[in-house]
Structures are given as structure tokens and as C-alpha cells.
Specification:
two-stranded antiparallel sheet, 9 strands, homodimer, seven-stranded parallel β-sheet, Rossmann fold, alpha/beta
Chain lengths: 341, 341
């Protein structure tokens, strides 16, 4: 039996082993991914992101507990560990996270150090998610830290992206500066028992109003109607609803993850978003984008491998030396080396 | 006269025009970069990074003011704007930043939206920095936001990287979580008039102690001696100093950028780090790494261009469809498409 077959049969040990092989990008891992791929496409992929200090990890733990206890679903968590990009050492281990969920065979938590290049990280994350998807996990939560490119990559990978904020982490403008509002499908104000929660929520609301000036009128539990601007002029909104395309306006949900409050409602928002994606056709669109990005990454990687196998190390070193001495520009050097392929 | 020649002659308008062409990756920009490249390699490249809310931008402004008024140096600032990755809209414009430095011909500030792919952003930043370097700017400050891959890229690009912290931005552990300590050459505790500054500094110090357990003993203004462990056993440290390699331990500098205090000392730290890089040989090493990363990015880009020019759109779409329908894995699809090249 191949490791892929063992995983399809629910073998947890084989799963753990394959995740390591996939993370190390071994040939065994690659082959298993090919074998597992036809079994993917069923899981709901949920990205959770936000600045350090927002309490993302405990929120994810609470969500996992909810899905286990209330909905009896299989949950996987891929925690992209905000550890050093250079040493690769994880600060928060799996053990800390497992305390609440230990011994439950239907929960699998995998931490991954954010070492190496981002392209590599995004690709590895996508591969781990595929393994969990094929292994029959109903929900795969991908948790990342920080503000920046990693969030964008998570948004590309996930069906539903939660952006977590918390009161008192700095000026309100910082939320805009972080530039992550556009990737949010659901906004979570965690640590909602802290002072300043109203201000945080107000700032998020006014940012949403800026982003969705008219749609806000028709908002109802996260779904609104996008009105085709030309024909709706002067007509009452209700008359337009049937012919309009439903669009999603990110709901704002307060939570206190240390107490577990607001988690049921948050799970409800997530379920509504999944239903919206299915009915609007966005689920299919996101799948296409995700697989296209993955294909491009694999093509890029294969091309670079071909390159390094075909260019002589001596020519490479000699050309690099000319660049260092400012005799050849990097652009010209690239052309010289590519001629050799 | 080519635009490159105009820039070498100090034409500010030509510089502004070329920066736009380089940012748009136009062929004119590319040609000018090749022409300018032999004139690069003189500027001191300084990266400034840190979480939102630490006051990076005003710190950079203060540093620029110092270099102008005290040291009479030409300064360029490349501010990677923490705007939306999707809309590309800049929240903080150049005008806000220019207030203190307006009308000074020896200061040039360029904001860049962090739109598009990270690879592209890093490459574009490197190109803008090259233009400033060739144009005779003594210092080029590259300012980025957030915790994550963009910091790592800045560290690769810069000679000296400043990591900015501030009191009261969350738990002390968050600084470790952000995982940016390893890229810091100098640690700045900005907003040092805020409560909690001692805690922030203490947390940074204990992290440094963890990272440099023995070297700390010999620390002196940011430079220490790395003792070869075997022969030094039992010998007094002073006896070893002559034969040891000097290593750099990041100094911690308090600043209050709103008042400009601590800025002189910070500039002093930066100058000491540059001297250390020169004397230890690390300057040459960092140059090599930087140019090698840039060369690899250009090769990758050219290969992808070749690919898209050689593979028929119909085959690409048909193959992608098979992936979406889970009939072909992304890995197999990549191989099918690469055969066409």
C-alpha cells in the first residue's frame, strides 16, 4: 500500500510522515501528492491572519473546538509559525496548542516554520493543505502572522479569509496601513473585553463604508446586492434586488477567544460565507486562481532546476564576478547565462 | 544625452522620470539601468523595518534631517508604502513626508506601493536603489512595513538593517514571534518617552543574550570578538582578542523621533556598523549575496517570459482545465507544458 492509500484509509501515522516528506519536498512526497490530487477539492480552506498580539492562535484553537464539539467535523490546522526566517526555530511548539485538543483523532495541527523563500513557503503550505484535503478533513485552517505578502498568499489559497484585529494595538490608521482589509472575508475583533473595542470596530466599519459606499445599504448578514449603477438610477432599491448580483460585505464579529465567546457566531459567519461562495460562483473562481498560481510556481521551479543543471558552475561564477566588479550589469549577465541553456 | 547621462550629471527631473520608468519596468528603464550599473556600489544602503505603529516613517525623516544638516550628505529614501496589495492606493503620500525636507535638492523621497508579487517588489526596489546609488546619493534608506518576508528581502538588499520597536505594542513575546531579530544590525526603541520602554528594552536585551551568549562579555559599542571555542578554553578573554574575528552585536538605541532625540547617537551606530562591515569583509560578502539574488531573480523572470512566449494559450487552458477537474495534478500539468518549450 502506498502512503497515499494509507492516508485515504485514515492512517494518522502515515499522514504525519507524509506531511514531513511534503515539507521537505522529497520525491516520495511529490509522488504521493500526485496520487492524492484527484481526492482534493472537498475541504473548506479558511485563512486566519492578523498582526502579532491579536490572539490569532487561541482564536483558531477555539474555532477548532467549536467545529469538533458542536459540528463534529474533522479539522486540520496549518500554523505558519512566525519563527525566525534564518534559524527556522519554532517559538511556539505544537504542544502548547494541543492542550485543548489533545487526544482527538479528528484534529490535526501542523506548525511550519516560515523559513526559506516566500515562494517556497506558499508552495509548501499549498501542498500540506492538499494532503489534509485528500485525507478527508472537512476544514483546513491556515494561520499566518504579520502584515504583508504572506497574507496575500493566504487569501489566494483560502476560500474564506479571517482578518483578526484587537483593541489597543496602535492607532486606528494602522489597520489601513497594514493594507489587509481587502483580503478579509470576515473581520474579527478579538479580545473584545479590552478597552477601546468600540473604537476598533468603528474604524473597521468606516473603512468598510469607504470600500463599499452603496452596497452597505442593502447589507444583510454579510450578503448584499451589487446594483448595476446605470439602470438603478432613481429606482427604489427593493425593485432591483432580483436582478442584482449578490456580493459579500465582510461582517465584523467580536470574540473573546480566552473565554470562547463569540465563537459560535463566528462559525456561523464562516458557514454563510461558504454558502455565498457556492451560490455566487466565486468558489469555482477561487479554485481556478489558486490552482493557476500553483501551476505557475511549479513551472518556475522546474525552469530554474533546468537552468542550474545546464549552466556550468565555472561560467556562472565568472559571470557573477564580472557583475560584482561592475563590468557587467545583472541584466546582461542573465542573458549571457541563459544563452548557455 | 541619454537619461542615464543626465542622471550622472545630477539632473533631478531626469532622475524622477527614470524612477517611474524603472518602477514600470519599461525597456527605457532597463537600458538606463544597464548604463548606470558601472556607477553603482558606492552608496550605503540602510534598511529600516518594524511593525506598524513603531513610528518608522518619522524616524526615517529625522535620520534624513540629521544626515543633511549635520553631515551634509545626499539622502534618498525608498518608502515601500504599506498600501493595499490589491488596489495599490497609497495611504501616506510623499507630501506628508516632505514637509520637513521640502525644497532640499539633496534629499529625494520615493514612495512605492507594495502592489503585485513580492518577487517583483524586491526586484523593483533593488532597481530604484541602483538608480539612486549611481546618481551619487551617499545613503539610500529603504523603509518597509510589517513582519515577514519583506523584512528578509530588505535585509538582503541593505548593508545595515535597523529594526524599530516601540513600547506598548503588545506582549514582549511578540517581538520574538515577529522573528525579525536576526535581521537586525541595530535595534531601535522608538517612542522612548512612552511607558514600558524599560520592558521593551529588557526583552530585546534578553533576546540578544540568547542569540549571543558568550560574545556579550566582550561587547563594546556594537563590536565584539568571536572567540574560537577550542583554543580559548580556560584562557583569559583579553589574551584572545588579537587572534579573534570581530563580530557585530546589535546595539539597542532609544529614540523619540517626534522630538528628534537619540538620532545623533543612532547615526553614530549606523556609521560604526558601516566601518565594521568594511573592516570585517562583510561589506563585500553582502554585496555578493545581493547581486546573486538579483541575478537569480532576473534569470527566473526571463525563463518565465520564454515559457509564456513558447507555450500555446490553448494548450495552457486545456491543461489548466484538467487540473481544475482533478484529472491531472499540477505537477504533471507543469511537466506537460514544459515539454512544449
Amino acid at each position: 500500500m502506498t502512503s497515499a492509500q494509507a492516508i485515504l484509509n485514515g492512517d494518522r501515522l502515515a499522514l504525519a510522515r507524509l506531511l514531513t516528506q511534503v515539507e521537505n519536498d522529497s520525491s516520495v512526497g511529490r509522488e504521493a501528492l500526485i496520487e492524492l490530487f484527484p481526492h482534493t477539492g472537498k475541504a473548506h480552506l479558511i485563512g486566519v491572519t492578523g498582526a502579532p498580539g491579536t490572539g490569532k492562535s487561541s482564536l483558531v484553537n477555539q474555532l477548532a473546538l467549536h467545529y469538533r464539539k458542536v459540528e463534529n467535523k474533522k479539522i486540520a490546522i496549518v500554523a505558519i509559525d512566525p519563527s525566525s526566517p534564518f534559524t527556522g526555530g519554532a517559538v511556539l511548539g505544537d504542544r502548547v496548542r494541543m492542550r485543548d485538543l489533545a487526544g482527538d483523532a479528528n484534529v490535526f495541527i501542523r506548525s511550519m516554520a516560515s523559513r526559506g523563500s516566500l515562494g517556497g513557503l506558499a508552495q509548501t503550505t499549498a501542498n500540506l493543505v492538499q494532503v489534509f484535503d485528500a485525507a478527508g478533513f472537512d476544514l483546513v485552517i491556515i494561520e499566518t502572522v504579520g502584515a504583508g505578502q504572506s497574507e496575500v498568499d493566504v487569501a489566494r489559497l483560502a476560500h474564506t479569509t479571517l482578518v483578526v484585529e484587537a483593541p489597543g494595538l496602535g492607532d486606528d490608521i494602522q489597520a489601513i496601513k497594514a493594507g489587509i482589509l481587502e483580503i478579509a472575508d470576515i473581520l474579527v475583533v478579538n479580545k473584545a473585553d479590552r478597552p477601546g473595542v468600540e473604537n476598533t470596530e468603528k474604524a473597521l466599519k468606516s473603512m468598510l463604508d469607504l470600500a463599499h459606499p452603496t452596497e452597505r445599504i442593502f447589507q444583510h448578514h454579510g450578503t448584499a446586492m451589487r446594483i448595476n449603477s446605470a439602470p438603478t438610477q432613481g429606482k427604489p432599491a427593493s425593485a432591483q434586488k432580483t436582478s442584482a448580483t449578490p456580493i459579500w460585505i465582510p461582517p465584523i464579529q467580536r470574540t473573546i477567544s480566552t473565554e470562547g465567546s463569540g465563537i459560535d457566531k463566528l462559525a456561523d459567519c464562516i458557514a454563510k460565507h461558504a454558502a455565498h461562495l457556492r451560490s455566487s460562483g466565486d468558489w469555482v473562481l477561487r479554485e481556478r486562481t489558486r490552482l493557476e498560481v500553483e501551476l505557475a510556481a511549479l513551472i518556475r521551479e522546474s525552469l530554474m532546476k533546468r537552468f542550474s543543471e545546464n549552466v556550468s558552475p565555472n561560467l556562472y561564477e565568472a559571470t557573477l564576478q564580472k557583475v560584482i566588479q561592475r563590468n557587467t550589469s545583472p541584466w546582461e549577465a542573465a542573458q549571457i547565462l541563459l544563452k548557455e541553456m
